[in-house]
Design a protein that fits this description.
Length: 287
């Protein structure tokens, strides 16, 4: 009987010690399974309107900065550039004409003072300045036409992965309307959502350990880059008749809110491909 009592007491003490150790470890090293892999998404957006005549990418393909993704039909923009250059030549001729007329009037006035009225000389000067201004405007239009022609080649701004490509050769694209998403491969981070009660004492640059649900055998380290300063609230938002919306549910237990903690990745394995939106567990490590 006494032996059973001793055995039970030892087991209870061991369980209590283990529970305390686990609780202490959890307090010192907050952990959440509510984490996600994130990255910056570049919306590839053409600056001109037209049909795609050349498509050099496929869905989920890796591309490098400067790679030609697709080409928009440039026939219209070549014609506009030719028209702009022709207009520029016309205005150059008008500048020469205005200057010739001004020089003739000035020389005549020099040979026979008073033969050309001052107002006429002023008008010749104004004509020259107007022609030069028109020439600058024509040059600006030529430059704009050159840019539009250049913009028919849509290139990758960053290294990354093409995602959700739904266009094909012949598809119509519209200027300033996104066509495809490009995930910047150098911008991956993990965002963990921690209970507000777990963040007491947590500091920037503190180490963290990340484990992906898709690859739990290869945890890797990171550093806390930022801690969210606010989250959206559900109660109190404006509803009908400008009155606040209030959730009528009552809970006996008051749930802690979760705040986003951004983890900068330090040492992700080379053979591990990160994917935006996948699930991760994050543990903040005590110093």
């Amino acid at each position: 009987m006494f032996r059973k009592f001793i055995t039970t007491a030892v087991l209870v003490l061991a369980a209590a010690g283990g529970s305390y150790s686990y609780y202490h470890h959890s307090v010192q090293n907050p952990w959440t399974r509510d984490g996600q892999v994130r990255a910056h998404i570049v919306e590839v957006t053409p600056r001109v309107t037209g049909q795609i005549v050349q498509l050099n990418i496929r869905d989920n393909q890796h591309v490098e900065a400067g790679d030609l993704l697709f080409k928009v039909d440039d026939s219209q923009y070549k014609a506009e550039l030719a028209s702009a250059k022709a207009a520029e030549l016309q205005f150059e001729a008008l500048v020469k004409k205005a200057k010739n007329e001004q020089n003739r009037a000035v020389q005549l006035e020099q040979r026979a003072p008073g033969s050309v009225p001052v107002l006429t000389l002023d008008n010749y000067q104004i004509a020259v300045e107007t022609a030069e201004a028109n020439l600058e405007a024509a040059r600006a239009q030529t430059h704009e036409a050159e840019l539009l022609l250049e913009y028919t080649d849509v290139k990758s701004p960053v290294d990354g992965f093409i995602t959700n490509l739904n266009h094909r050769v012949g598809s119509q694209v519209v200027a300033n309307s996104p066509v495809v998403a490009l995930i910047d491969e150098h911008s991956f981070w993990v965002e963990g959502f921690f209970k507000e009660t777990d963040l007491d004492g947590v500091q920037l640059n503190q180490r963290a350990r990340v484990t992906l649900l898709s690859n739990s055998t290869q945890p890797f380290d990171g550093t806390i880059e930022s801690i969210g300063f606010g989250i959206s609230k559900t109660d109190g938002s404006t509803g009908n008749a400008l009155l606040p919306n209030v959730n009528p549910n009552f809970q006996w237990i008051r749930l802690a809110q979760r705040l986003p903690v951004k983890i900068k990745l330090d040492s992700a394995p080379d053979n591990l491909q990160l994917r935006v939106g996948t699930t991760a567990s994050v543990q903040i490590l005590a110093d």
